[in-house]
Amino acid sequence: MRKLKVNQLEHLLGQEWDIFPAGGATGEAFIAVNKNEKLFLKRNSSPFLAVLSAEGVVPKLIWTRRLENGDTITAQRFIDGKELTHEEMNEEKVAHLLRKIHRSKPLLSMLKRLGKTPLLPDIMLENIASNLDLELQNISPIQQTLYFLQENLSLIECDDKVVCHCDVNHNNWMITKENKLYLIDWDGAMIADPAIDLGILLNSYIPREQWGPWLSRYGVDLEPGLLLRMKWHVLAQLLISIQWHKRKNRLKEMDILLKNLEAILV
Questions:
Q1: β-bridge mates for residue 39, sequence order
Q2: Cα separation of 196 and 207, whole Å?
């Protein structure tokens, strides 16, 4: 795939802009500065970005322009902020923003228009089982996890399919100096059970005894059905991550995830 070059952006914006890479694995994001104006530029962002911006979930989309080669460039307002800490994930504004996202009809409608279909647990489990290599399949906690997922498959049905971020890591929550909170990096968004986001967030950041108050701020009760759905989806996501780390030969990270697996199975 051809790389986006700084000179293409200079031609698009003008020589008065200073443009430099924003970092990241793809090399497709840049920061542009002109006097007091600062923009975050990205190539070929999904049309989903416009709805996220309109809903106030991500920094404001300023404009979208097309290059001569057909690529599109989006410009968002560059926010002067910071990532949330582990402790800040327990704050009320996090629960409120996630609730807003999960209840957003415009976000759900746009993902459907983009061809996304609901992520169903039976299909997810089938994909997980078929992608696990033989070495992993022979590890006892993984065998126990697969058994748990299969045995509880019929008990975690959820008619409420919403837009899930699917990577609610604290690094993706950004807060400005004005205390405005955003959730960024939506490349993995899915239509799914909200228990995916809730389970990952609570298991990663919130002490177990505080799950009830956190979910109350989000707008639901901590009840056995939700607990089971969250546990199911967290275990499923852990299996996916374990296989990914093994393929990348990141064995130390894989071992940490295996320990997490065992702790949740208890």
A1: 32, 77
A2: 18
Q: Which of 40, 161, 81 is nearest to 49 (CA)?
A: 40
Nearest alpha carbon to residue 163 among 225, 120, 109, 227: 109
Q: How far from 76 is each of 31, 35, 235, CA to CA, in Å?
A: 10, 16, 35
Catalytic residues: 167
Task: Give the closest residue to 201 by CA, choosing from 55, 84, 118.
Answer: 84
Look up the pTM and report it: 0.91
Q: What is the pLDDT of residues 183-214, one digit of tens each?
A: 999 989 999 999 999 999 999 999 999 999 99
Taking the C-alpha atoms of 116, 122, 123 and 124 in order, what is their torsion angle to the nearest 10 degrees?
90
Report all structural domains of the chain as residue ranges with CATH numbers, in order of start: 6-78 (3.30.200.20), 84-265 (3.90.1200.10)
Angstrom distance (rounded) from CA 171 to CA 184 = 9
Q: What are the structure tokens assigned to 203, written together?
A: 């298991």
Reduced to 3 states, what is the DSSP secondary structure of residue 80? coil
What span, in angstroms and rounded, lies between the C-alpha atoms of 230 and 192? Answer: 12
